[in-house]
Amino acid sequence: MPWCWSAGLNSPGVKVADYTAETAALDxxxxxxRRRHGPALRAVLYYGSCLRGGDxxxxxxxxxxxxxxxxxxxxxxxxxxxxxxxxxxxxxLETPETAGAGRPARTLRAKYAMFRERAFLRGVAGCWxxxxxxxxxxxxxxxxxxxxxxxxxxxxxxIARGRRHFLDAVxxxxxxxxxxxxxxxxxxxxxxxxxxxxxxxxRLASLVAAGEADLCAIAAGILPGLPGLTLRAGGRYRxxxxxxxQRRAAALWAVRAAAGKLVSVAxxxxxxxxxxxAVDYAAWKIERHTGRPLDxxxxxxxxxxxxxxxxxxxxxxxxxxx
Length: 322
Description:
The chain is an alpha+beta fold. The protein has twelve helices and eight strands. The strands form two sheets. It has a five-stranded mixed β-sheet, sandwiched between helices. A hairpin with a 5-residue loop joins strand 7 and strand 8 (about 235-240). It starts with 20 loop residues before the first helix and ends with a helix.
């Protein structure tokens, strides 16, 4: 059985009282992960669009999976090497769910990123230059399963440090009065620029609006303690980081954007050889984020090493990556 289930803003140790259809679906996916990776599995974190929507069967569930080591989790030596050199490796999981009271049998799907436990803890706490982890987990998530209480506590502390690091790095680039949603939109924009992600302004606004209550609760525990921030009437924050700090923060984000795109390209090509259907998944992801289709030739699907270049070239030509 899972060590902990938690809901909403992630309150580790709080168990979900009602065994809902959502809980049943997540339990089925978790059981499949435990069968696949055995005792090497250390924790499973749930985030993304299915979490926001509340229905794991509505799309492809996003997980981050922590393991003792990639080799112990069943990867070959080459895949394990690349998982450690350029984390994470990405996997696809598909499993049937038996019919329950009032609902038919369904096929559940998940995409999960695998990290060595130690690497994840460093990345999510803000020890990495790039916000690949500390930017993602500054947003709401759910700790779906954890191997023991000590790791649960360590994860909670690391993510709390990463959230503070994220909001500190974001607010240091601002000057003026801002609402919490405006701060989050700016933060997401900065974070997404460090990856091959093309998010229209409207989508950023909708992402923040969908989780506004949770994001405000996260910010309320962090923003008042950051340097240069003063809470004003109406929930607005006066941000005055100082010229030198603002310039330093802007320069750091510029470095992150340049380095992050290079790392993202490297991850994309690594994924083409470790993730079945990676070309089609990349095209689907881009369409979902931008609202515009991306046609992939059949030859590119048969040859992933070619498909990666096709995806990148068409993204560049369309202006969806810069």
